Structure to design on (612 residues):
């Protein structure tokens, strides 16, 4: 993951003389987010929990999804049942809508649906949950138009309403949710989507989010956009097949991904956010003093070899 | 362009009985943004100005870029010079960084740069301009963390500071900017980028935006991500070639795209925004009463045949 935001210009050599502008005085140098991450200690990182990590293996590679059972216990449980019974194996990605979502599940769901096995056909939506479900929230000080409070919980972007005492996951890039029809219990986790574009935050509290993609997003974002309404693939368009979806705990250890996530409740994380809120020179000329929730990066890395 | 945000669930038939939830009372039905657009009059749309429209033709199709000379007069003029002299023909897309930008220009710019012809090698950055440059601003009432005021001007997302009397284009999805090095005059328009992911608004007022992609974004967003730092393609990775970049005015009329943009200063546009700010039932269960700048859609369509 690259946090640097420098735009390299190929066509020009580096210029030795800085040309000042009245409206763009140079900012003092400051450590960047990636500079700060380089100073992290091993204890600032947490491994993914194999009991709450999914591997969606495509012919092109692996998409790793961290589940968030605190925010959607019933939906996550149903997805785990589907996965344990290998429901997704041989299904496909059926939708790619530009600047919105990729969605996967049963391509024949409307005509000849695959059996859900022992999983439930209806699971009540968990659009928000009691605030007490979330033990790991760390507030972000920035204003947000979609939620009274925002922050992170175990690396997930979160909105919360202290008056209503509710909390919910936010539709940032990479978040994974449960497709549904009009009824709030019409989803069951057999059809999932990942956000592949600008955060559609109006979906917050309207649909159940169950986790986020922590690795492999380009496998979803580079898929051809579907030619039918809402980016669904037509019958004659290729659908990316799903080889298998497995719970990490059910995969032999040697075949597991070895990822770890920067702890959002570690002090270093606040420094990472501040480095993104107020960037320093020499490239940056203006510091926003603001960080929108979905622009806050939660670093993920391969666990360093011992 | 699809404005509908319904998530179809394939695996379930439509359910006849609505199951109420304590926390998700049904919202009253309201016209959606696409419903409202269907009621538009021909005069609610404006054609693209051929003198300020670029066609970037790739082997895979055409990317149409509307330029915004009001916001970056010097940079737009230099780009037009480059385009008129066919500078971009035979160059390539050199960078695709996931959830960030695609960038194009001279792949050999650091070693054996192509001549810029009569274009300037240095153009002062136009990170913001006097508020008087912008005659078409219509304010959006929603709060924004990156700008004292936000709105749209001729379909471009805009931030402005009434105290400083400055205005600038905002880094929403699809916006096109001028790559630069550390110095504020180190860009010249020979290296351009388009935002392909969540809006990196911290770039606002740090780099010159010159326009936006109004058609063809998937040609950029589905490109393989580059394997080098910041998503640059390595020497052994394929670079998407640029067949040509032309000003629409210099293309025979029969070969021009026939697009029109909903006028952001027409009253209907405020209704479109309000429909996105407060969505109605039956799918939506919670109305945000907020619309983040980069979630406001500026509809573009083919001009209807007479």
């Amino acid at each position: 993951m690259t946090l640097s935001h420098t735009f390299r210009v190929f066509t020009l050599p580096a210029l030795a003389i800085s040309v000042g502008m009245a409206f763009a005085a140079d900012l003092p140098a400051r450590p960047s987010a990636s500079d700060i991450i380089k100073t992290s200690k091993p204890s600032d990182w947490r491994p993914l929990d194999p009991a709450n990590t999914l591997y969606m293996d495509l012919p092109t590679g692996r998409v790793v999804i961290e589940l968030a059972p605190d925010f959607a216990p019933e939906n996550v449980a149903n997805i785990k049942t589907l996965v344990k019974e290998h429901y997704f194996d041989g299904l496909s990605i059926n939708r790619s809508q530009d600047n919105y979502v990729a969605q996967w599940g049963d391509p024949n769901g409307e005509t000849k649906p695959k059996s859900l096995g022992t999983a439930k056909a209806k699971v009540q939506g968990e659009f928000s949950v009691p605030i007490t479900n979330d033990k790991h929230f760390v507030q972000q000080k920035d204003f947000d138009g979609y939620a009274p409070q925002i922050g992170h919980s175990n690396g997930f972007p979160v909105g919360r309403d202290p008056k209503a005492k509710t909390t919910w996951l936010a539709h940032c890039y990479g978040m994974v949710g449960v497709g549904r029809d009009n009824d709030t219990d019409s989803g069951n986790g057999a059809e999932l989507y990942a956000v592949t574009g600008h955060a559609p935050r109006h979906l917050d509290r309207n649909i159940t989010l169950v986790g986020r993609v922590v690795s492999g997003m380009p496998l979803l974002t580079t898929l051809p956009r579907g030619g039918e309404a809402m980016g669904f693939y037509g019958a004659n368009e290729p659908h990316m097949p799903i080889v298998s979806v497995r719970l990490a705990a059910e995969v032999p250890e040697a075949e597991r991904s070895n990822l770890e996530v920067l702890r959002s409740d570690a002090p270093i994380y606040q420094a990472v956010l501040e480095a993104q809120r107020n960037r320093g020179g020499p490239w940056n000329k203006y510091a926003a003093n603001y960080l929108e929730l979905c622009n806050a990066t939660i670093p993920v890395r391969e666990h360093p070899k011992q």
In short: Residues 33-45+262-302 of chain A form one domain. The helical segments of chain A are 33-38, 73-84, 217-221, 267-277. Residues 73-84 of chain A form the longest helix (12 residues). Chain A is about 10% helix and 25% strand.
